[in-house]
UniProtKB/TrEMBL annotation:
This protein's name: tRNA modification GTPase MnmE
Gene: mnmE
Top-level EC class: hydrolase
Note describing how the cofactor binds: Binds 1 potassium ion per subunit.
Assembly: Homodimer. Heterotetramer of two MnmE and two MnmG subunits.
Signal peptide: none
GO biological process, one term: tRNA methylation
Annotated CDD domains: trmE, TrmE_N
Cellular localisation: Cytoplasm
Source organism: Sphingobacterium corticibacter
Domain TrmE-type G: 224-397
Amino acid sequence: MTTSDIISSDTIVALATSPGANGAIAVIRLSGADAIAIANSVFKGKDLSKQETHTLHFGTIRDGDVIIDEVVISLFIGPNSYTKEHVVEISTHNSNYIIERILSLLIRHGARAAKAGEFTLRAYLNGGLDLSQAEAVADLIASENKASHEIAMNQLRGGISSELQRMREQLINFTALLELELDFGEEDVEFADRSEFLALIGTLKEHVTQLINSFEYGNAIKNGVPVAIIGKPNAGKSTLLNTLLNEERAIVSDIAGTTRDTIEEMMTIDGVTFRFIDTAGLRETLDTIEAIGVARAKEKVAAAKVLLYLYDSLNNTAEEVIEQVKAFHREGLITILVRNKIDLEGGYFANDFDYQIKAELIGGGYADEIVALSAKDPASVARLTSSLVERIRGLVSDNQQVITNIRHVEALKLAFQSMEDVDRGFQIGLSGDLLASHLRDALRHIGTITGQIDVDRDILGTIFGKFCIGK
Ligand SMILES: Nc1nc2c(c(=O)[nH]1)N(C=O)[C@@H](CNc1ccc(C(=O)N[C@@H](CCC(=O)O)C(=O)O)cc1)CN2
Ligand SMILES: Nc1nc2c(ncn2[C@@H]2O[C@H](COP(=O)(O)OP(=O)(O)OP(=O)(O)O)[C@@H](O)[C@H]2O)c(=O)[nH]1
């Protein structure tokens, strides 16, 4: 690739820092073949065309004789830049007036206003980043906690890309062997035995499934892990939420049915963001407002990753706890039984009540554990939060790649289907060329994730259109 191949014809410009923000300095970024020439035509200082890449230069920006600002210019000579084109960054004083004047000055001198995500689009088109890395840039900017930051950073550093590359290589070897056999078709040779092929496709399918499943965790981490807090009226749901949030957000009272609607609160604990959802108490009622609340509670559990079921031994029978928790149960729902108000019993002592619940719900696989606490007491609630964090972290193993992007999941599902076709094809003795065609489909679907394979212009538009302008 020569420099002229990778440097696009038009030069784009945008504010790279946040518009309207209060900082001291703003950065205006130019990228393209004429970036240096355009900057030179408004900059009074050293001749930028004679400077080395990755150097800084002090000077003024002038519109005719008028000095608009004293600035610092950073120079990146293509392809040694983020976009792989010439990039010039102008650090100005952060004034909307100055920014507007410099932007329009640069446009008058031949630059064009960049569209959303256009710098990163160019980085992708010029081979600086692959598509999943470009998407990671958006995730990184949006990341607000340690867990989502870690996943986005891993993706930006090529974690997903290299994993997919390994998978593609295996598939390519596989296809090559199969096509070699096809060439010798008449002679009926087999270069690899069928069981080896089947084992390999089985491993690949398993791997793809693991990635698909990681999305549930990845998506929860990215958007906050939804936790539904459920229990009979007066179980202490609002009290627990208040202690968790350390503020009086939910209305607490001892009149059953105070919480008529659902309340949602975001909170980051040990780097994991949770969305706690308080819900109306569960009870048979003729009060229609509250009946709607109960229906909503069921919806919330359906959308939750974690269920905190609150009860206490004074107001609940073991039977009703068992019945309700079973009613909410579904595969993959992390269920923590929260036995509340232990201060009223003078501390927690396991008794028949617990043994029954433990045997039925923990033993039966409907719940993961029981945490006994007093919702009013922050120290005992801390035991619950550390258990919550541990369980969320436990969903993926340390070095497993996590998918956070729905586009990637869709592509992986299609790849899985093609692998299924290969698998089934083998079993029913499908001809080699048809098998190879299914294999190529699988390769193509995986390739769309990193963008190695023809990605539709519309899809690129959707991906980069979500970025902010200047990114
Ligand atoms: N001022 C500034 N800060 C920024 C960016 C930027 O564009 N400008 N970035 C963008 O959003 C991110 C950093 N990304 C960057 C990626 C590559 C290069 C770069 O100059 N690459 C060269 C040189 C590499 C080297 O010296 O090792 C290259 O790839 O050849 C710069 C920034 C975050 N901070
Ligand atoms: N002693 C004691 N009282 C508690 C504890 N947790 C909650 N309570 C009390 O129990 C009553 C009901 O608590 P809430 O938090 O309003 O219960 P809720 O589950 O939100 O009730 P609804 O809004 O009716 O669904 C209040 O008087 C709380 O102060 C606890 O750990 N110990």
